[in-house]
Amino acid sequence: MYMKNNQNNQNNIKYVIYARKSTDTEDKQMASIDDQVREMQGVADRLGLNVVDIITEARSAKEPGRPGFNQMKERISKGEFRGILCWKPNRLARNMTDGGNLIDMLSAGIIQHIQTYGRSYYPTDNVIMLAVEFGMANQFVKDLSVDTKRGLRNKALRGWYSASQLPIGYKHNTGFKPGEPEIINDSERFEKVRELWRMFLTGNYTVMEMVAVARDQLMLRNPHGRPYSKTTIYNLFNREFYAGYYFWSDEAGAKVRIKGNHQPMITEEDFEKAQVLLGKRAKPTRNVKHDHPYRGIMQCGECSCAMTMEHKLQVKCTVCRNKFSAKNRTDCPKCHTDISEMKNPTIIDKTYARCTKKKGPCSQKYVTVDNLEQQVQEQLRKIEIPQAFHEWAMSVFEIMHEEETTTQKKLITQTSKRETELVEMSKNYIRMFASGKINQEQLDEFSKEVDDELALVRAQQKQTHTRIVDWFKTASHYLNFANNAVDRFNNGTTKEREAILRAFGSNQVIMDKKLVITLPKAYLLMKEGYVAISSQSEWLEPEKALVVQGLSGESDDQIPTWLPVLDKFRTLDWRGIELKLELFNFFPKEISLVRL
Fold this sequence. Notes:
- The protein is an alpha/beta fold.
- The protein has four domains: about 1-145, Resolvase, N-terminal catalytic domain (Rossmann fold); about 170-280, Alpha-Beta Complex (Hect, E3 ligase catalytic domain fold); about 300-380, no CATH class; about 385-590, no CATH class.
- The protein has helices spanning about 1-10, 35-45, 65-75, 90, 95-105, 130-155, 190-200, 205-215, 230-235, 270-280, 370-385, 385-435, 440-480, 485-490, 495-505, 520-535, 540-545, 565-570; strands at about 15-20, 50-55, 85, 115, 120, 170, 185, 245-250, 255-260, 300, 305-315, 325, 345-355, 365-370, 505-510, 515-520.
- The strands form five sheets. Strands 2-1-3-4-5 form a five-stranded mixed β-sheet, with helices on both faces.
- The chain is flat, with a radius of gyration of 40 Å.
């Protein structure tokens, strides 16, 4: 009887078909609007339902406020129709507000029937099933949102900017394979945008002039074929992405600055200079923290205080010629001309090393970091060895180490054998004492002799083993450090330069703008060896050249002139410089030349 009454009621109800296609990724696999309408018209024909209208829309149901959905509710309230046909409940709502409204209208009888493809809902039913359907749809959206945000965040933290629209000149590498870049250069626009940056950084162009250059000279167009607006060009010069960095929220929601894996167009210094040129239109915060590789390493030669680094960013006004700091203001304090309105302003961007003067007055003057770097290069040239000599010397050391290791292993075998004999001898003395062959006084005397010799043998074993490993490992580190040292310093990152300088030498002092470094003896011996071998007409093969008496069996007069130097290096007392080895761990693997 109940089913019969519902069937009779259905014949008198006017229905609306509601079909929705979300523009979000959550519904990409959902049936299209046309498919939904066709299927629900088939259901209406099969059940004999009177469809008086069709409402469709392509809007997400995650949030309330869909025009089509609101229109449907309003017309239902006016009595234009009392039934709804839809593919699934999640087509009607994916948020609890809209879902709750529909449940209230169904419970109150305003909506008399909701028919989906596989289920019917009536006012006289327990609405818990419909509430569960809406709840599941809402939870799906929440889970999908969390998963999507997590995926985007992880991608961003890996160094790939996760925004759907990238800055001009870049594009997402769709369909990339593992190991391939996820962001690539836009071949149509990358070089044009880089030329924009180059021209703007000269200071000869205003942003308005750059807009004209992009439009008329470079023919830079958006994907729709239209030139970029003035606002877009301003924003372009405000994007740190072009310098290789971007901001993204971490798991706690805090903004973090991330170094991207994409190819930058400009340097960080270029970006900061661009912010100066933009003046009041620049990013609100331009005061970049400079991480200098020399902070905390050098000392003042006059008062022994630490040397610190001070960055100065100044602009010389083109109107009144006044020089002012551009770190905290964008206009000239004297004539109030904004930097963006100046034609080719002089920008002074330098970092200075100065004494902290924590112990009182000090007469030492500032010295520029550029000057210091030149002096560091001069010091590195004193110990630098070329790649060819590095490889050759390592080969010689490997042969010497192999020969020495063989000899030392023989000695270890002998001492081990003697250790076993002494241990057995000690046991025999105890057996003799137990059997009454010797008394306590004799046992103590014999045992002391054995223990003394045993301690001596074990100390010799430890010393031999340490010598086999330590000198070769440590010497290799110093050889690797000196290999092409100047190039590695010039091309190194901040951390790499800091590691080089810290491992370079001790007592680094600046006096009268001159850098003085006490070089370890190991470096001087390496250089001495290189100078000695370079004076020869040709280099010998390491196996043929290694004719040290005791290793090869040949006489001393056959030893080449360079070999005593390398032998000095091998026999150098490394105990005083072993602590420096941990500094070499700062070097990245890509620049390490260890051949162990």
